[in-house]
Amino acid sequence: MSQVPGSDGDGRGADLAWLYRQNTSDSGITGGEPRTLLLPMPTAPRPRLAARIPVTILIVLLLCLTVGAVAGVVLLLHSDSRAAAPGFGESASSGGSQASAGKSVTPTQAKVGCQAPQTTDDAGHPVYYAPGQMFDAKPNTAWRCNGNGIGQVISFTLPDQTTINEVGLVNGYSKVDPASGARRYGEYRRITEVTWTFANGSTFEQSLQDGVTTLQKLSIPSQPGDTVTLTIKASSQPGSTARGRNAVLISEVSFSQP
């Protein structure tokens, strides 16, 4: 077999043999064998890579934006927090401050200008209202003053070299009668505003929420001194019209140091 013109002997030219035809026309060339002409075959243009790259980048960017938008919506939904006022019996920190995790300080003494006389509970047992019951860690005991209590001042003595950065109180009678199960908090008045005064003359106002039977705390800048006074500024109406319910009570007070 004769080789196709232009091949280098390795058979590659044979693959293109069909592209050749013999020229039998009068070419004006004498002698020799008829010449073979190569007919060029049109080829389809290949898509340029450079033109495809921007499309790929655009698709990737759109995917990234979509994923980012979805992630943002999910985070927004999870971070949605609904602030609700504490319900009856829940604890609260008033004055817009977070309660600190300081060390508790117990007063050594409390002086009051008003103290209600002894009464009895539903089982007939005597009930006392001594000022020391404000810091005995017993929610069923309390100090009591008959009337609305406005203007009453309670003076607490603290251990020497004490620095206070948080105060608090239970603003009513949190007792549950052991005999009848009656809840006393809602029957009496509840204190709604007080002023704390320290030995250096600094004063801090605290507003208290009605319906919260646990400690309501107020964080303050650190105050040195061994004396703190509490002045009652406002109280609610009694929750019951029963005899003897027109009174203010404080079940517990709290002091904390850094």
Task: Please give a quick description of this structure.
The chain has 258 residues and is an alpha+beta fold.
Describe the structure.
The protein has 258 residues and is of the alpha+beta class. The protein has a domain at 92-257: Jelly Rolls (Sandwich), CATH 2.60.120.260. The protein has one helix at 49-78; strands at residues 20-22, 36-38, 92-93, 103-105, 109-112, 119-120, 126-127, 143-146, 153-157, 163-169, 191-198, 203-207, 216-224, 227-235, 247-250, 253-257. Strands 3-13-10-16-4 form a 5-stranded mixed beta sheet, with no helix packed on it. A 5-stranded antiparallel beta sheet has the order 5-9-14-11-12, with no helix packed on it. A hairpin with a 5-residue loop joins strand 6 (119-120) and strand 7 (126-127). The protein is elongated and about 90 Å long.
